[in-house]
Write a structure and sequence with these properties.
Strand content: 15-25%
Shape: elongated
Number of helices: 11
Largest sheet: 7 strands, antiparallel
Number of strands: 17
Distance between the termini: 56 Å
CATH architecture of the largest domain: 3-Layer(aba) Sandwich
Radius of gyration: 29 Å
Bound molecules: guanosine-5'-triphosphate, magnesium ion
Helix content: 25-40%
Order of helices and strands: HEHEHEEEEEEEEEEHEHEHEHEHHHEH
Amino acid sequence: MPDLLSKKYRDQLVTWIGRPCHFQLVYKISRDGCSAPTFHQKCDGQGATVTVLYNTNNTEYGGYLSQSWNSNCAYINDPNAFLFRLQYNGSSNPLKFPVTGTGNAGYGHSNYGPTFGGGHDIYTFSGTVSPSGKAFSLNGGLINLGHSYNLNGQNVNTIANNSLQVTDLVVYKVIDGPGQTVPDLDKPWREHDGWTNETMQALKESLLDYKPMTETNVTAANILLIGQIGAGKSSFFNSVNSIFRGKITSKACSGSFEHSVTTMFNPLVPFTPDTLGYIKDPNLKDKIHCVAFVIDGSTVDVMSDKVQKRMKDLQVRMNHRGLPQVVFLTKLDKICPDVNDDVKNTFTSTAVCDAVEKVAEIMGLPRAHVLPVKNYESETKLKTTVDILLMQALQRCLDFADDYMDEQLDKMAAEGKNVQSKD
Ligand SMILES: Nc1nc2c(ncn2[C@@H]2O[C@H](COP(=O)(O)OP(=O)(O)OP(=O)(O)O)[C@@H](O)[C@H]2O)c(=O)[nH]1
Ligand SMILES: [Mg+2]
């Protein structure tokens, strides 16, 4: 789950605080409950803190104290304190409001939540506040905003929408020195080609033009899709098919069935000499050139040992033949709300990054072999971004298939075999 406080606003706060520092979340009402005793238990004596209120108007504001919170019914003297606004009605709009009444910068009281200023400027809540739905109606007040802080012409409406209706209130401990663990959410965790229509067209053309880069009669790459029931094999096939048909199609039956509807690729049905289409001594063109494990990204955390073992067993046989393997990690939309909103967020999503890492570890494959995708499932229209993600995955798979064919040809040449088929 990405942190509520974006990288941009963290950087802004660090600039205002005026020394290298980073933030550690210590109290969050949506997680810990909105209760004054809990706030004090977690925040008293912690040194410098930043308190941020996230109100239901998409406004983010709060205050910084360089001194510790206390429960002593005592004002906190702090010449370095300031209040701030980071965002207003969904737009980035950072402003700093320096303390004027330094002796009353904060107020510590066992039955009060975070409280700033004499009077008080920001009095968040007292006692315990229960959530109603996803929001908390904090029972404090903002009527004296401007009492101990210089609002530089702003007022309670332009700073806080005059609203204590919040989705969250978070207190961060300020720790000296630059942080290492704060992920840069603006920087993608994997390079990608962008999300434009041109990128989509270029990928489409390159895939349409695809021919194995070998001087043989091999005209296509054979990719084996393997995966658990419901992992999204048929959906992947259908999605790719849809892209090239220019509309959503459903050639391979997909859906939630207890038993697989695509037994053809199902490892539960072993491939034997009796299987229709079995070729005893296959030519390169008849072989599998790349294996794609299709794994449901939303169930990575609960993948059973049995399934892991089954895949490992298959991998042993594939490794034996030097077969390249990739993972199509499906259902990204289910693991990250940002990706559900827009597939463009795939490579900046920490949830997707984590899932990719986890799968790479389970499968013993390099991370670059794990290819996140989102299949078409309920859509009625194609989307450029979804197309790009799917085609990129397919393209990578074909690159690996090419490498494999090259190696096989070298091997056959070394063994003096004729690569051309008999027919
Ligand atoms: N939200 C979401 N749902 C998906 C995605 N891919 C597949 N699904 C859904 O997951 C269910 C199973 O997908 P299938 O493609 O039928 O899975 P399969 O691997 O072919 O399953 P079997 O043929 O039964 O082995 C279907 O209801 C799909 O609509 C995805 O990327 N996102
Ligand atoms: Mg299927």
